[in-house]
From TrEMBL:
Gene3D superfamilies: DD-peptidase/beta-lactamase superfamily (3.40.710.10), Penicillin-binding protein 2a (Domain 2) (3.90.1310.10), Penicillin-binding protein 2a, domain 3 (3.30.1390.30). It comes from Flexivirga aerilata. This is Penicillin-binding protein. It comes from the Bacteria. Residues 39-147 form the NTF2-like N-terminal transpeptidase domain. Belongs to the transpeptidase family. Its main location: membrane. It is found in: Membrane.
Amino acid sequence: MSSRTVLGVTGGALVVAAGVGGYMFWQQGQEVGKADDAARAAVTAFAQDWSARTLDKTTYVGTSPQAAAANFATATGALGNGPVKVDVTRFNRDGDNATATLRVQWSLAGGRTFAWDDPVRLVKQNDVWGVQVSSSTSLWHPKLQAGDSFAVNTSSGSRGAVTGAGGSEVMTNQPVYDISIDPVKATDASVAQLQNTTNVPGLVTKLQAAKKSGSKAPIPVLTYRRDDYVVVQNDVERLDGVIVGQRQQPLAPTRTWGQPMLGSVGPVTADMLKKNPGQYRSGQIVGLAGMQAQYDQTLGATPGFTITPHSDTSQVLYGTAAKSGRNVTTTLDPRVQTAAEKALAGQNGKPAAIVALDVKSGNVLAVANSPSYGIERAMSGHYAPGSTMKIASAYALLEKGFDPNTVVPCPKNVVVDGYRIGNFEGETAGSPKFSEDFAKSCNTAFVNATKGFGDTDLQKAAGALGLGVDWSKQVGFDGAYAGSVPAANSPTDKAVSVFGQGRVLASPLSVAVMAGSVARGSMIPPVLVTDPAQEGSRAPKPLDAKAIGGLRSMMRLTVTNGTATDLKSTPGGDVYAKTGTSEFSEGGRSGAHAWLAGWQGNVAFCVLVEDVPTGKSGGTVAAPVAKDFLSKLAAS
């Protein structure tokens, strides 16, 4: 044979050998593929069984299908019955062991989706692939221990507090007790007793309506402060179908303290839910009125929703913890506020108000209203200021160089453009000095003294003192009224404006600002809320020093020898004041409001008492309230 032939045979043998080896590699590959397919099929079936919640169909290693299904139900029960989607995202086999990663997406209530990656192991036993169950970790989530479960936690967070000067407590979180009725368990008899205990009418009727409609929703009754609840606790808790829930809610020192300026907090109303369904949820605690409503976005907590292991609720697997609201910082001084509240308590619910300011800073120290659950009149009321307006009228005169010692007659009546103007009590004082006209509050003298006023002179003087200029951006309270002093449109309009009638309007706050400006010698816009920070400048605007000096003397004379002599012996030092009595006519009824504005030491104030008896005035009604306020403040 030739070498060529030998080479040919050898080459042929080599080809045959290579063919046998290739077949063997192909056969092994087929076997590997089958093993991978079998393991992959097992984990895919497990993912499908999980999605369908048929966990008892899966083959497991280390437990039975029934036990695994029972453990799944226990571990995931808190997540609810929403749709679940489980997909295999990673897979790897090594011999008779395999690992895979499942992407789990669990649909929760409220449109939330709880998603996580769950690593699983598979083992081949007796030619069957099964899902390995560990004795130390849960099959359902890598952060759960064996036998552990998911915990769903909801929390409301704490509402922010309202604080006062120096961080003092004004409205802070305290325990409250919500009383409601379970319409399923309650009886007419038990609810009738609850109605008598709480003095809330119509509860039996509401229960009967709920039973008739088949409603199982709790019927809200009222919320008690802790001190009030302990009085009725035994009577309430023994009644069938009465639910008592405890929570925290911002409260002032007493039910009446700072009301209605501070406002109230409570469950969101049906009307609020209807108007703003995206902003509120049923049962949410929100600000309902006053500052609590105005600053609800600041004070309100952000509710929390978290999913954690039951064994460690600090380990958040999904969601965010509740976020407490931020505090609102005010300039209120609890000592001054309490004195004002006590002084108004003597009015027995008669409409009245006291506002107090810090002379040096212009900060609001107290805002008290009577009745405590009526309208907010102290800062937002619109009233004719009466003779307290003579503070601005006198300042306008003195700024022009008018001498307080000038004799200005005080006749019983004067006639302006055919309109007769008189004094409040129809009195006459002869021909005194102007300073005495001021102290005795003579309208006719002021009309005579201001005959030379231009149409805007009073407007400018009042504005310089802080009445009728816009400081709404600085004060931080919605509805705070700075007053209005329009330019005169006729001789009569000009004449009645100088003693605070006609079209002139003011709030107790704006009159207190005017008094504080005289005490300080400059005008500073008032501020109640300092955090959140308010807009606008609070730079002092200096006043005419000579005019202010003369005005101070006349306001002191009002106390020593004028219409405010009731304040002569007030504890705490000399008082400077101006009384006022403003007449009104509305709804076919006429009457008068009593005013007094002034200061003592570093506290400027204004007192208003509405609708006083015939013949009564600022000096006889408002002055005693002011004295009571200052006396209580001095004693505190």
